[in-house]
Every structure is written in C-alpha cells, then in structure tokens.
C-alpha cells in the first residue's frame, strides 16, 4: 500500500471517529422510519355498503380492524387472481374458514358477538348460499364483498 492510500484511509478513520456518531444521530432524528405498511381500502358500492352495514355498526378496536382488513384484502386478491383452486362457492367457504382459523387463531373468538355471522351473511347475500361454480361475475362479486368487509371494520 502506498503512502497516499494510507493517509487517505487514516483521514477517513479520523473523520468517522469524530463525526460518525453525530451523523448517525442526525439521520435518526431527521429520517422518518415507517414500520407499518399503509393499506388502501377502496370504498364499496352502495349495494355492498348495505350488505356490510351490520359490521359497520360494531365497535371494533383499531388493532383488530387492521388485522381483519389485511386478511380480507388479501383474501379478495386471492379470489380475484385464482381460478384454478377455488372453483365453487363451497370450496371458497372451506378455504375462508380454514384461512380465517389460521390467520386469527383465537384472537377474535368471542370478542365481537355477531362479527362472524355478519361477515358470513354479507358473503352469502353477495354470492348465494347454494354451492355453485364460481364464474367470472360471481368471482368479481365475491372479491368486491370481501373488500367491502375490509372497508367496513374501519368505519
């Protein structure tokens, strides 16, 4: 290593030793660190607002609302993007039940008296109760009501 390189490295070390901690503190104090992702929830149609009105009327804690919103938005994405796994409304109900059980564990069980039945009722009103195949229109309806559920818990 030549003398010029040694001198430059020594100067860098001296500058880092003198100002490094101040520079790190400056960055910490002036840069906003965002740990929570922001979720864009689209306002549903008037028809879907009516279907989720019982959910809107519930007083859901903010943390629970975030958890429910994330789940139903993701579920809406899965439903709208998938046409090979979920082919019938019965398959969706089974998938929704299992995914909800895994996602929420027992965190919400018994916390909100009618939340589960209100969500089920909104879904049934949107796509029907009979087990039928999910065509593109029904898939769109299902995706939109799931997004409406995500919207409703934040009202």
Q: How many domains make up the 3D coordinates?
A: 2
Task: Summarize the helix and strand pattern as letters.
Answer: HHHHHHH
In DSSP terms, counting alpha (H) and pi (I) runs of 4 or more, how many helices?
Answer: 7
Quantity of strands, as a count: 0
Distance from N terminus to C terminus (CA atoms, Å) equals: 67 Å
Overall shape: it is elongated
Q: What average pLDDT do the residues reach?
A: 87
Q: Could you estimate the helical fraction of the residues in percent?
A: 55-70%
Q: Please, could you describe this protein's structure?
A:
This protein has 155 residues and is mainly alpha-helical. It folds into two domains: 1-33; 46-152. The chain contains seven helices and no strands. The termini are far apart. The model has no long low-confidence stretch (mean pLDDT 87).
Please outline what is shown here.
Helix content is 67%, strand content 0%.
What is the strand and helix layout of this fold?
Blueprint: H1 3-30, H2 46-51, H3 53-56, H4 62-81, H5 89-104, H6 115-127, H7 136-152
What structural keywords apply?
elongated, 7 helices, 67% helix, 2 domains, 155 residues, mainly alpha
């Amino acid at each position: 290593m030549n003398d010029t390189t040694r001198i430059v490295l020594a100067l860098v070390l001296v500058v880092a030793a003198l100002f490094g901690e101040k520079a790190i503190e400056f960055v910490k104090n002036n840069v906003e660190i965002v740990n929570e992702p922001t979720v864009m929830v689209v306002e549903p149609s008037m028809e879907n607002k009516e279907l989720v009105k019982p959910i809107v009327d519930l007083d859901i804690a903010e943390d629970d609302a975030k958890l429910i919103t994330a789940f139903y938005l993701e579920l809406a994405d899965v439903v709208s993007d998938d046409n090979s796994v979920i082919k019938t409304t019965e398959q969706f109900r089974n998938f929704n039940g299992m995914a909800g059980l895994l996602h929420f564990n027992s965190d919400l069980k018994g916390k909100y008296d009618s939340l589960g039945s209100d969500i089920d009722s909104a879904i049934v009103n949107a796509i029907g109760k009979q087990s039928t195949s999910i065509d593109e229109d029904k898939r769109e309806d299902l995706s939109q009501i799931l997004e409406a559920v995500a919207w409703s818990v934040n009202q």
